[in-house]
């Protein structure tokens, strides 16, 4: 990690300008000025900007006036220095989703976990180095629901001499999907605030989008269509990111196949599909080989939701255009859509997910812990809170919706947990007694218990440095079984097993894949099922783990790991920066 200087000593804001990622593709491996070990300076000015979609104009928070936000590009081993100026009335912070932030939780970004948020009129510098990672990640706001508009891609190229472990593509194109709710005609902060007040589910979005554009399947949107221009007989790498708030998404391109080569900035054994599914928070690199003699000048790309929720959701389809030759904008409406699975097709999701395997090569080994120090079982799902006596609530049976891990619904602290840990001032801030097994065992995927009320608290699981952890995430059927995309900050993990029903601690572990399990930072707990993860706690700090459905995060579906320092100097947290925001 380089010293925190640069912008605070009057260096130029950036010799590496922002690049609008919805623009034409660039041959990224040939980008100039990106030698390994370089430092890249960026400035984020967070301002309100008028944006029009679906014939509705509204003022939304943006970075540098762009929606979606700017692309950041670096190589493995590079340092990024991002100075954020908050010019809006909301508090804000930024998370660099998937970056390990080794010993440097101060740059991780989740509000009240690793930092107090950046208040209006204030600034903060995120200074971090990308170590041992290459591929597609992304950045987004990590306060309330602001990430619906504040997000963008983070492209990490291999070291210059390394290249890719697959044939070099002709071009690379970042494509960001937005969720059911990614474009709301309403103010999203008002949407979630109303839901938290009434206890009911929030209103859903008005459209899904490709790179911020809803496309021709929606009224008053034909001109707001993303077009990907391609040449016949070429191979393109699409960098796919699901930036949705609350929806997993199916994706396909009519009459084309896709070869998956990377997931969450970790290479995988290539596999080819017609349809893929990607959860909020996940990133994926896929190779698209275009037809040598296309029968049509253009083909439709489409996204649609996957969900088993018992509540309402945005059951629409967004489309974009794969364009071999120019065509009138109006013609996009008549392009046949790819055949995507039904919204509740868990079988299709399972068949796709089973394909993921790490390369497990000499150059890219699968360093999964074989011996385990700590075994933990976390139930993940919904629950309820009682309705206050002075109001009427719109949740199940007159209660308020809640969500929890092991029946603990996370309570936002009054100050940042990382700062409290660094200062060893825990009183009144956190408790180190997060339950590591369900406090009341029941038939998790069967009939729910009579009592579904959750407990509330700011609790963490403390870990000694270098502890090897096996964590089983068990879905529940409380308020309906559905999948939950869980994201772990500060770490990657290996997905060693998964299945449906209740985890069997005797019969399921012998079936684990310990040879080439996929390495990820975000994984969906299967609907009415479980997933087993392993990781080595070698990164000291306080690290959030949460559902990447923002509605569930708002209801409390999160917890934190407190990883203590190791004995050696390079195993200890770095000191906090001088401009760390105050609460």
Could you walk me through the main structural features you see in this protein, from its secondary elements to its overall organization?
It is a single chain. Mean pLDDT is 92; it is low at 1-36. This protein has a 6-stranded mixed β-sheet, with no helix packed on it. Strands 21-20-25-30-27-28 form a 6-stranded mixed β-sheet. A 5-stranded mixed β-sheet has the order 11-19-18-13-16. The two termini are 26 Å apart. It is globular and about 65 Å long. Strand 14 and strand 15 form a beta hairpin. Helix content is 5%, strand content 37%. It has helices at residues 188-198, 346-353, 417-423, 550-554, and strands spanning 39-53, 56-63, 72-75, 79-86, 94-97, 123-129, 135-141, 151-157, 171-183, 207-210, 227-229, 235-242, 248-253, 258-263, 266-273, 275-278, 283-289, 298-306, 318-323, 374-385, 400-405, 408-410, 455-457, 460-463, 467-475, 484-488, 493-500, 518-520, 522-525, 529-537, 541-547, 558-563. Residues 1-37 form the signal peptide. It is found in: Secreted, Extracellular space, Apoplast. Its main location: secreted.
- In spatial order, strands of the major sheet run 10-9-12-17-14-15
Q: What is the number of E strands?
A: 32
Determine the N-to-C terminus distance: 26 Å
Instruction: Give the overall average pLDDT.
Output: 92
Number of helices: 4
Radius of gyration: 23 Å
User: In percent, how helical is the residue content?
Assistant: under 10%
Largest sheet: 6 strands, mixed
> What structural class results from the helix and strand content?
mainly beta
* Unreliable segments of 5+ consecutive residues: 1-36
Query: Given the C-alpha coordinates, what overall shape results?
Result: globular
Strand content: 35-45%
């Amino acid at each position: 990690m380089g010293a925190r200087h640069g912008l605070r000593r009057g260096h130029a804001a950036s010799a590496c300008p922002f690049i609008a990622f919805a623009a034409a593709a660039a041959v990224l491996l040939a980008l100039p000025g990106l030698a390994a070990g370089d430092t890249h300076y960026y400035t984020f000015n967070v301002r309100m900007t008028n944006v029009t979609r679906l014939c509705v104009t509204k003022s939304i928070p943006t970075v540098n006036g762009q929606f979606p936000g700017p692309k950041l590009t670096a190589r493995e081993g590079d340092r990024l220095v991002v100075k954020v100026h908050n010019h809006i009335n909301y508090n804000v912070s930024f998370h660099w989703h998937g970056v390990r932030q080794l010993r440097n939780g101060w740059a991780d970004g989740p509000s009240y976990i690793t930092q107090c948020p950046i208040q209006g009129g204030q600034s903060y510098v995120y200074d971090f180095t990308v170590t041992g990672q290459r591929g597609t990640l992304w950045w987004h706001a990590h306060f309330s629901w602001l990430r619906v508009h504040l997000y963008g891609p983070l492209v990490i190229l291999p070291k210059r001499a390394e290249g890719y472990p697959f044939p070099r593509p002709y071009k690379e194109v970042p494509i960001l999907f937005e969720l059911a709710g990614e474009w709301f005609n309403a103010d999203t902060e008002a949407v979630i605030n109303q839901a938290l007040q009434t206890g009911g589910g929030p209103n859903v979005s008005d459209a899904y989008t490709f790179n911020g554009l809803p496309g021709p399947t929606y009224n008053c949107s034909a001109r707001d269509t993303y077009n990907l221009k391609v040449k016949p007989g070429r191979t393109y790498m699409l960098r796919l990111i699901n930036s949705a708030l609350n929806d997993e998404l199916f994706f396909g391109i009519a009459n084309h196949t896709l070869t998956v080569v990377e997931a969450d900035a970790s290479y995988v054994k290539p596999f080819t599909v017609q349809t893929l599914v990607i959860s909020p928070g996940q990133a994926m690199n896929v190779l698209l080989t275009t037809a040598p003699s296309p029968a049509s000048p253009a083909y439709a790309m489409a996204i649609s939701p996957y969900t088993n929720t018992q509540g309402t959701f945005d059951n629409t389809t967004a489309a974009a255009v794969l364009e071999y030759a120019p065509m009138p904008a109006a013609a996009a409406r008549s392009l046949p859509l790819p055949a995507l699975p039904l919204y509740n097709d868990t079988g299709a999701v399972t068949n796709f997910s089973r394909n993921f395997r790490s390369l497990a090569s000499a150059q890219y080994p699968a360093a999964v812990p074989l011996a385990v120090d700590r075994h933990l079982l976390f139930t993940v799902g919904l629950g309820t809170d009682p309705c206050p006596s002075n109001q009427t609530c719109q949740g199940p049976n007159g209660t308020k919706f809640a969500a929890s891990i092991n029946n603990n619904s996370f309570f936002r602290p009054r100050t940042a947990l990382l700062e409290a840990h660094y200062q060893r001032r825990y009183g009144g801030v956190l408790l180190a007694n997060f339950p590591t097994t369900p406090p009341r065992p029941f038939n998790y995927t069967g009939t729910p218990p009579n009592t579904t009320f959750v407990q509330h608290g700011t609790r963490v699981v403390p870990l000694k440095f270098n502890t090897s952890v096996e964590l089983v995430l068990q879905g529940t059927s409380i308020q309906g079984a559905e999948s939950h995309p869980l994201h772990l900050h500060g770490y990657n993990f290996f997905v060693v097993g998964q299945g449906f029903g209740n985890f069997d601690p005797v019969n399921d572990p012998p079936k684990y894949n310990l040879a080439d399990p996929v390495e990820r930072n975000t994984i969906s707990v299967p609907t009415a099922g479980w997933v087993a993860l392993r990781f080595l706690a070698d990164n000291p700090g306080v690290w959030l783990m949460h559902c990447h459905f923002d509605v569930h995060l708002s209801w409390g579906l999160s917890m934190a790991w407190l990883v203590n320092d190791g004995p050696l100097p390079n195993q200890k947290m770095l000191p906090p920066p001088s401009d760390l925001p105050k609460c």
